[in-house]
Request: fold
Amino acid sequence: MRKYIYEYDNWPSFTWDDKQLSVAFGEVRLMQGKLMGQLSSLGFSFREEASLLAHTMDVIKSSEIEGEHFNYDQVRSSVARRLGLKRAGLISSSKLIDGVVEMTLDATQRYYQPLTEERLFGWHAALFPTGYSGNYKIEVAQYRTGEMQIVSGAMGKEKVHFEAMKSQVLKSEMDYFLKWYNAEDNLDPVLKAAVAHFWFIIIHPFDDGNGRIARALTDMLLARAEGTGERFYSMSSQMMLQRKEYYAMLQKAQHSSGDISEWMFWFLNCLKNAMLTTQSTMSNILRKAEFWNKHENTLINERQRLILNKLFDGFEGKLKSSKWAKITKTSSDTALRDIKDLVDKGILRKTNEGGRSVNYELVFL
Reply:
């Protein structure tokens, strides 16, 4: 039977091939600098919008990796409220969503504060406000006291993907991890983020939520690397897109004797892809910011503002008057009046699709 990485005598002495990583690491650092430079030259409201989107996607996608699906508008509203943004709106969100948002923002907004056991327990409690994970009661805000296996397959034909460390060693293992995490060493925070993610997953200290906390720890170190709590890309979104690879790389590295070069290389490329995705997202946010600057003095009511922002943020399907009425909770007549007003102002136009149903789209700048 193959040994796990933590069963080797040199645990937790991780090694990697600097030569193999140098190009990918250089590209990531260059892209980070470029991204920060572009954003610093833009207005505050634009940066605010970009950070709101990145945080929202981080919460949604980190939970999605674990099979939990959150409503976009509720998450966005919860993030905006906690960031103190005026656009927070009145959309209410569940305790569960608020808990995940709290953890995510604590990691990134207070990236400069030390990571402590108490802080980790607070994050864990925020992730499981009811003390349950689905239908199962779990140990909350404490290290697990039971054994942990990750298995799949039908009863009697289970396949063990990972067997975590014994619960008796968790306290000492986590004490050592926290000391390393907070130490000011010569390891670049980007590389440290890759190591921390893997190391925490291997320790697997909690009954549940280990993946989400590992991704929050990653974001915290990336915020340290950039010296800002503002987030402009979502590592969790990219990990969700590359989910199969993500799990495959973790599974492969868990049996190494200490060399985690392949995991480090994959992590850096995933980070690079996250920033590449952001560049196209940013152009949309910039377009949105330019639109609202242009229409600063245009009379636009709250219903119209709501739909226009949705169109910029990725509206699902076609915009019809019936959908407008449903989203804004208003009558068909009011919806048509709102739409006609925006068409007259040159903000919306009818599409050329024909058919009985009339669709509308934004007139881009």
